[in-house]
């Protein structure tokens, strides 16, 4: 089934651009205040590069933004993983059936990992929005190229 839509390619692109701009707004400050204090030195330098890009290239919402924010997201995820451990708690014998021993396993996050987990969502949303925008622009460009070949 083919559905007709009243939105034009331009309208769709404007909506995608608007989403990226809205999510990009305040991201440098978010990274500076909610992410940087909880990272190791090397990761701080990487995220600082993203902050610098956000501050110096406020009109850039394409592939450069996507790449740098994605790299910052990877640093945050690595720091969360490094700050996460497992805690094994023995299950009392009276609750066990047919086993000598068993454990409940819980993930335990350090304070830094908890803070970074809380700060991750806006970064994830910006990466997704920028990715959708770049993919849409690529699709439009490739479609125009195909039409121009004929």
Can you offer a commentary on this structure?
- By secondary structure, the chain is mainly alpha-helical.
- It has one domain.
- The protein is 67% helix and 9% strand.
- The protein is built from five helices and two strands; from the N terminus they run H-H-H-H-E-E-H.
- The chain has helices at 9-24, 27-35, 41-56, 63-82, 111-149; strands at 84-90, 103-109.
- The chain has a two-stranded antiparallel ribbon with strand order 1-2.
- Helix 1 packs antiparallel against helix 5 (111-149) and helix 2 (27-35) packs antiparallel against helix 3 (41-56).
- The longest helix has 39 residues, at 111-149.
- The chain is elongated and about 75 Å long.
- 20% of the residues are buried.
Name a few traits of the molecule.
67% helix, 150 residues, mainly alpha
How widely separated are the two ends?
A: 27 Å
How many DSSP helices? 5
- Please describe the biggest sheet, giving its number of strands, its sense, and whether it closes into a barrel: 2 strands, antiparallel
State the oligomer.
Answer: single chain
Number of spatially distinct domains: 1
Give a count of the beta strands, DSSP E runs of length 2 or more.
2
Mean pLDDT: 92
Question: Which sequence of SSEs, written as H and E, runs from N to C?
Answer: HHHHEEH
What share of the residues lie within helices? 55-70%
Low-confidence stretches: none
Q: What integer value in Å does the Rg equal?
A: 22 Å
> DSSP strand (E) fraction?
5-15%
Taken from the alpha-carbon principal axes, the silhouette is: elongated
How are the strands of the largest sheet arranged? 1-2
Structural class: mainly alpha
């Amino acid at each position: 089934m083919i559905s007709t839509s009243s939105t034009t390619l331009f309208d769709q692109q404007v909506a995608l651009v608007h989403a990226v701009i809205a999510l990009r707004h305040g991201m440098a400050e978010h990274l500076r205040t909610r992410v940087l204090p909880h990272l190791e030195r090397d990761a701080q330098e990487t995220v600082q590069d993203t902050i610098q890009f956000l501050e110096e290239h406020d009109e850039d919402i394409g592939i450069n933004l996507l790449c740098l924010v994605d790299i910052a997201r990877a640093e945050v995820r690595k720091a969360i993983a490094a700050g996460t451990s497992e805690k094994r708690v023995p299950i009392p014998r009276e609750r066990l059936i047919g086993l000598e021993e068993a454990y409940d396993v819980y993930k335990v996050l350090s304070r830094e990992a908890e803070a970074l987990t809380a700060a991750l969502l806006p970064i994830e949303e910006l990466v997704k929005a920028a990715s959708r925008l770049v993919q849409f622009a690529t699709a439009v460009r490739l479609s125009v190229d195909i039409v121009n070949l004929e």
